[in-house]
Design a protein that fits this description.
It comes from Meripilus lineatus. InterPro entries: F-box-like_dom_sf. This is F-box domain-containing protein. By secondary structure, the protein is α/β, with parallel strands linked by helices. Strand 15 and strand 16 form a beta hairpin. Among the domains are: about 140 residues, no CATH class; about 150 residues.
Amino acid sequence: MSRSEKPPHIITDIVLEIFGHLRHSPRALRQCSLVCKQWVYPSQELVFRTIRVLNNTLTRDFQHLIRFLTDHQILSSFVKHLVLLKEKGEVGKRCLDLQQLHEIISRLPKLTSLQLCDLDLRACAEGIQKAFQVPHNVPRGPIPQIRTLLLDRISVAPVDFTYFLRLVSSVETLHITDSESTMRKPPCHSPLPVNLANLRCIKLNCSPLGSGLIQRLSETHPSSRFHSLSIVEHDPITPDVFRNPTFSSSSTLRRLCLYLKNVASDRDRNQMNALRCLDLASFHSLTELKVTMKLAWTDYELHDSSLDIQWTLLLGLVESCTATRIIISLTPPQYGPRSMGPRYTRQLSQCLLNDWWTILQELEWRILDDCLASKAIVPEVGFMGEISGTHDLVNTSSRENLGNVLEENIRSRMPRMSSLGRIRFWNGDRGSENWWFS
């Protein structure tokens, strides 16, 4: 298309990354259009679906972003995704006043996705905190229907978090990663004063804040509306969550992801015992179950007792499960024994293979094979291997060898499922740490 031809006004899916100070907003638009290699006519403004703002480009109170959105209403009227994150290398978290967050999202009427990274949401004005004490007090002004909320490395006080949830009460998918509450133990005994009626999918990853939230949801909300629940890494989930009848009797849950951590303390053992209370037979709509087993080292040997506890728990979950797809993720020790030091790095490939050989030899695969093959509806079972924390030190050939070892040995140890053709090998959902078996 020549420059003399006037193209139609097309809404693009290009990300607008705002660099520099936002008070130079027209220049920021031109710079972004050049980076994206888009021809922009002087009489026409390029419209973006996504705005990604780096924290170090903003003042502490985010007023520049508010002013930017106010000055570019055409742009703002089409934005669906907003990302506030920290510049790489920047130390610490930026404070975000929730009243200002409301001013930001209220200027984006079509916003459906909000992602907040490395922010401190505890910096609420005193007046906002007092106003929040009124049960039905909500901010004035339109609030967009945000469907997806991602919180990554967020700090927030419980009172402020509840106020924040009021801003995003329409959320359907909630992901919380590495986020914490300012209180040592989030108050889970009081009812949740927010109606998250549309919430369908919850994913928690190393998040005490999310764990406290799901405990309160299981007590105050009918969990039968949940379609997907993922609890990974070392969330401090207590037995009360799984013993709660409204949670355990869910009839609409379709996807469930659980993480079987290394049992290294009494608290870990209590958390693993909490999963024993989970009766998967009551989840009649469950179609996919993913279970991750992660091992740890004790000096030079694998933690055998932890392995036995995890495997026994896995067999119990699989036996009671009615899902048609079961994914078992096997994660070896992350770095090996600390006492090995640099030698482990030099001999990494062989150590990883030895780890897997130990796992394959010690686990009772025949019991798992008989349990799966004897079900009325034989599920499709996928095995996934994840090299956590060491993927950058393992070359491609070592990965392929490791994958071949897993596939060959698992198939030979599960003859009934292999003969039925119900075993597959998948990669996972953790980016570069995953690799294909076949």
